[in-house]
Amino acid sequence: MGRKWNNIKYGKAAKDAARSKVLARFGKEIYMAAKNGDPDPALNRNLASVIDRAKVAGVNREIIDRAINKAKGGSDENYDFIRYEGYGPNGSAVIVDTLTDNVNRTVAEVRSAFNKNGGKIGVSGAVAFMFEATALFGFNGNSADEILEGLMEADVDVRDVEEEDGEITVYADQDQFHAVQTALNEMGITEFEVAELTMLPTSTVELEGDALAKFLKLLDVLEDLDDVQQVHHNVELPEEE
Predict the structure, then answer these.
(1) Domains of the chain, with CATH numbers?
(2) pLDDT in the model for residue 75
(3) Which of 87, 151, 170, 226 has the fewest C-beta atoms lying within 10 Å of its C-beta?
């Protein structure tokens, strides 16, 4: 399974460009993980995984603690996880993950984003079969063989470890995120280009001209929605200049 780094870095740059939204989205996810389980990450694997990802994204301790304390305080604020599936220009596949306190508002905003940018929202399961739920890590240094050996010694299951131009990519099942990151940290790897739970396409498509322009606009509009946590797709994005 291959995954070009320009796609990963494009998404990372888009997140970095909207820093406040990244912080707010992680704050919401940490709050819900603590609210729906034990507020101690040592006793709540889901919360530990969210905190791991938040730290890699640069979320500071104050925001993490504030979200956990809000859950501890018994806040009645609640969010539902809703996944929308749809089609972009030329039949490209898009998955939109949301956390929302108003389902009617969210579905209306997501549907509008698709309709106004050359796509359409689909039914549940319309495109999910084209993706694999994956814990993804990308970083520099070491060899793929050394990383794989270290993960095996730590008794951590991974799907694959790839190396390309000095950059290592580790793929694992999503429930292995915390175990993989812990093992990598113990191997001295603490800086990541990417460390996230994602939906990787089993194959990709290329768009050009007007279709590509519409697709990039669709991504921007969806990413800008307050209720949207992540957007996954199967389009090969252009190299960033």
Answers:
(1) 5-72 (1.10.10.200), 80-129+203-233 (3.30.70.980), 131-201 (3.30.70.980)
(2) 86
(3) 226
